Amino acid sequence: MRQAEAGATWVPSVHKDDGPLYLAVANAIGADIASGRLRAGDRLPPHRTLAESLGVDFTTISRAYKEAGRRGFVEGRVGQGTYIRAQSSGRLQPASGIVDMSMNMPPRFGNADLVERIWRDVASIQRGDGLELLLRYQEAGGSAGDRNAGAAWLAALLPEVVPERVLVAPGAQGALMATVGHLARAGDTILAEELTYPGFRALAQYLGLRVRPLAMDGQGILPDAFEAACAEDKPKALYCTPTLHNPTTATMGPERRLQIVEIARRFGVPIIEDDAYGMLPRQPIAPLAALAPELVYYISSLSKCLSPALRVAYIVAPNARAVAPLASNIRASTSIASPLTAAVATRWIETGTASNILKATRQETSERHRLLSRHLTTAISDPEAFHAWLPLTGPWDRHSFTAKLRSVGIGVVASDAFAVAEAPEAVRLGLGSVASREDLEVSLKTIAQILDQAPSFGGMVV
User: Fold this and answer.
1) Which family does the UniProt entry place this protein in (predicted)?
2) From the CB of residue 370, how many other CB atoms can be counted at a distance below 10 Å?
3) Would strands 296-301 and 313-316 be described as parallel, antiparallel, or unpaired?
């Protein structure tokens, strides 16, 4: 009875700018279940009572309770009211199931006309070279048409690029394999940010390379750290992500980029620029490859700006001599990029569909970042990034925090996945992998509430 009485006084914290109020109330029920404020058996206020408390109409609360019931949060008991249901395994039950924020991928947009255009472009391939794409191999490094499309796509960032220096690779990992294999051998040293892309860490380990971490600040690599490493280690290359760095979202400013390029030139160190997120900013900063085209191996994947499923990336070689060895490495390691998916990418670029997908992705990213700014103010992010970096400065460490989130159905990535040296107390949140804004809002509210709690072990608060 005590629980039921406690639930009867529940009033959620919702605002009119949270979107449809009935969804905001349903989301608040889910978040308060996850945080422990509401428990199984609690009786929620009657529809009319809660409507009066929130200053909304009766219908809004009816819709909210119905939505909460659809998600499995509540159950109606005839003649008794609305009660919180027991949650299986203590997991959060958002609108579309368990929330996985561990993947870093573009958010799904809801533009029906654009979706129809996407599939129309895919279908048009069948009427052209579809059978040839299905039944024939192509040359490593991509067909002339695909390389032309790659150069056209990259022209917004690299206006001087020519198709002859562009190669098509099977995703960023395939591009990295070809490029790193061209520049280094087992036992060699490559420099990287102290927090770096996990795929690069795995590749370096596979190839037997030593990775020396470089200290960072809010703009990425510190020039002094880069210069000292060049002088001491004679590295074979620098690997870095200057724009919307993964996981911290740091972006190098123009002056910092010039400093990094000057040091690399002075020591003769090639740069592998992973520009996976370079297309996302509306007003981008010139890539390192635009500042030192003779020094930089530039990699741009379509996974983060168009579609993770395409597995298409472009390598821009620093000179004509590097093209053949890179193509040979692609052939030796991954054979070719799928001709069919490369053709889809080319068709989207040629018809303008790719630009429209990018625009829709930017718009949805902005909406999701707005939710992040509202509910999780301690997170570090960029308005044009669909991931965020959450330092843990309170009682939580990264392992207990990720375990707690997992127990309520939210997956995040601890800093260990990115750390070349000692891992900080932090986690990365993927804003784009969550199916809907409603689910994302539930998750962000839950994360914020758990941050304010003390960790508990065996039922004891410590």
Assistant:
1) In the C-terminal section; belongs to the class-I pyridoxal-phosphate-dependent aminotransferase family.
2) 13
3) antiparallel
User: Could you tell me which residues come within 8 angstroms of residue 344 by beta carbon, excluding any fewer than 6 positions away?
Assistant: 121, 122, 125, 310
Helix orientation angle between 223-233 and 254-267, rounded to the nearest 10 degrees: 10
Token duo for residue 240: 């870095």
Do residues 83 and 39 lie in contact, with contact meaning Cβ atoms separated by under 8 Å?
no
Q: How close are the terminal C-alpha atoms of the chain, in Å?
A: 29
**pTM for this entry:** 0.78
Question: Tens digits of per-residue pLDDT, 218-267?
Answer: 999 999 999 999 999 999 999 999 999 999 999 999 999 999 999 999 99
**Are 424 and 248 spatial neighbours (Cβ–Cβ below 8 Å)?**
no
Span 434-439, average pLDDT: 89
Residue partners of 199: CB distance under 8 A and separation at least 6:
172, 173, 176
Q: Look at residues 155, 452, 134 and name the one whose alpha carbon lies nearest to residue 287.
A: 155
The pLDDT, as a whole number, for residue 315 is 98
Per-residue tokens: 172: 């960023």
Task: Put residue 25 in one of left, alpha, beta given phi > 0 → left and psi -120 to 50 → alpha.
Answer: alpha
The count of other CB atoms within 10 Å of the CB of residue 374 is: 15
Peptide bond into 247 cis (omega under 30): yes
Going from the N-terminus, what domains does the chain have, and what CATH number goes with each?
2-89 (1.10.10.10), 100-109+355-461 (3.90.1150.10), 137-351 (3.40.640.10)
Is residue 215 a contact partner of residue 193, using CB atoms and an 8 Å limit?
no
Mean predicted confidence (pLDDT) in 159-163? 95
Q: Is 408 exposed, middle or buried (0-12, 13-18, 19+ CB in 10 A)?
A: buried
123 three-state secondary structure: helix
Q: Mean per-residue pLDDT for 59-70?
A: 87
Q: Which residue has the higher pLDDT, 456 or 314?
A: 314
| Rounded Cα gap, residues 284 and 278, in angstroms | 7
The CA dihedral of 159, 165, 168, 169, to the nearest 10 degrees, is: -110
What one-character-per-residue DSSP string does 268-286 give? T--EEEE-TTTTS-SSPPP
Residues 6+ positions from 424 with CB-CB distance below 8 Å:
195, 391, 398, 415
For residue 193, what are the contacts with CB-CB under 8 A and spacing of at least 6? 213, 214, 216, 220, 221, 240, 241, 245, 420
